[in-house]
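Subject: Sanity check before I submit

Could someone independently write out the C-alpha cells for this chain? I want to compare against mine line by line before I put it in a report. The sequence has 549 residues.
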Amino acid sequence: MPSFDEVLKEAGEFGRFQKRVFFLLSQTGITFSSLFASVVFLGRAPGSFWCRIPGAAELSDRCGWTLEEERNFTVLPLHLGNESVRGECQRLDVTWDTSASCTSPLARSGNHSTGTLPLAPCHGNWVYEQPHSSIVSEYDLVCGNAWMLDLSQAILNLGFLAGAFILGYAADRYGRICIYLLSCLGVGICGVIVAFSPNFTVFLIFRFLQGMFGKGTWMTGYVIVTEIVGSDQRIVGIVIQIFFTLGIIILPGIAYLIPTWQGIQLAISLPNFLFLLYYWVVPESPRWLLTRKKGEKALKIMRNIAKHNGKFLSPHYSEITISNEEVSNPSFLDLVRTPHMRRNTLILMYAWFTSALIYQGLVMRLGIIGGNLYLDFFISGAVELPAAFLIIVTIDRIGRRLPFAVSNIMASVACLLTAFLPGDIPWLKTTVATLGRLSITIAFEVVYLVNSELYPTTLRNFGVSLCSSLCDLGGIIAPFLLFRLAAVWLELPLIIFSILAAVCGLLVLLLPETKGISLPETVEDVEQLPSHFGKCGKKRKHGDTNSYI
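---
Independent answer below. Compare away.
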C-alpha cells in the first residue's frame, strides 16, 4: 500500500497540473495584498478642508458665494486673531442667520479685525474640496476623529486574525477548496458593502469581515498549493509571495486611475468573484481527503493529476496512506513544555510580530511623508521583487539563520539612518528607506519557511498557525504606533522600528540552523537540532509534511 508521497512522485511532483493550479491560486495574492495595503489610498489626506460656521450654508446659498468666498469669510478672520489657527479644527463661535450681510457677515459679531471673537471646536461640520476622495472626507476622520483611521486598519488586521483561526479551523474540518471559495465570495460581497457603507460603523463591521474572508483566501490558497506539490518543492511557498508583491505594485496604478475611494474599494474587491470559477478547475487537496478517510476520492484526483502531467499511475493502486498524523487537540503548552521548543516558539512569535509591524508601518508611512504617493508606493513595492529571488539564491547555500538575522539588522540600520538623514537630500533618504523595505520583506518571507522547519510533524500546523497569529497582532498595533507617534515627530516610528528589528536580528541567531537536515518528526527531534550544527546535514526525508501558514 503506497504512501501519498510515493504516489505523488509517480504522478509528478510539480508537473503541468500543479503549475496551472499554482498560477491560478497565486492570483489570490494580488487581491489580498491590495486589501492589506489599501488604507494608504482609501485613507489618503483629503486635501484642503475647513470648519463651516453654523448658518453658513444657508447664507452662502442666499448670497451666491463660491466655496472659496465662503472659506475666506470663515477662515481669514481666524488668522487675524491667531496665525497658527488654520480653521480646520476650530471655528469662530458665532452663528450666521439669513439677515447677515453678504459682504461682511461678521459685522454684527464685534470687531473681528482685532481677533477678539471666541473660538469653538469643530464637530462634524467640515467642508472638503474633494469630498469623496477618501474615507477621511467621507466619514470626517479629521481633527479629534483622526484616530479612527488607525482604527479602520486595526479592525482589518483583527479580521485577519479572526480569519486565521476561524477559517483555518474550518479548512481543516470541511475542506480547503470549499473554504477557499466561500472566502472569495465573502471578500467580494463584504467589499461591495464597504464601498457603499452609509456610515463609519457599517464600514468597520464589513471591513472586519472582509479582512477575515481575505485571510481565508490567502491562507487556504497557499495551503492547497503546498499540499499538491512534492516535499522537495517547498520553494513554491516563497515564489507564491511574489504575487503578493505584484499586488502592492499594481495598487498605486489603480488608485491613480480611479479618483474616488469607493472606486478603489470596488476595484480590489470585485475580482474575487472571478475566483469562484476555480470550482471547475482546482480540485480538493488529496492530502486533506486522506486525513478525512476519503481515499477513493483522493486516488481519483491523483489519477487526474498524473493524466495532466503525462504520467500514469499503476492500476493496482486501490488505497493510499499518509505517514504523518497530527496530534489531537494540540495546545500552547505543547509548544513551550521543553527548553528548545520554548525558545523556538517565543523567538518565532516575536519575529512574526516584529516583521509584520515594521513592514506594515513602512507601507503606511508612505501616506504621511509627502511627495508623490503613487510613484513612491510603486517604487517601494517594486523593490520587494528581488526579495524572493535573494532568498531562493541564499537559503540553500548559506542557510536560513544568517539571512534571517542579517535582513533584520539591515532593516534596523536603514530605519535608524532614514530617521536622521536630512530632508534636503531626498534621493539618499529614499534610497536608504527602500533598502529597509527590502530587508524587512526578506525577513518576513524567511520566517514563513523557518517556522515550518522548527516544529515537529505532530505540531507543525498548529505551531505555525499560532506563531503567525502574532503577525496580525503586529498589524493591529502598527497604525496606532505609526500615526500617533508621527504626530509627535514624523521620524519617531522609525526609531521604534529600528529597535524592534535589531532585537529580532540578535534573537534569531539563537535559533538552530535547519539547512540540509530532515524535518523534525517528534519533539525529541527538535530538542536535538542544535547537535546537528557541527555535523554534515542529513538529507531531508522525502515525504515530510509541507509547510502551512
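---
OP: Matches mine. For the report I'm noting this point. Strands lie at 49-51, 90-92, 119-121, 126-128.
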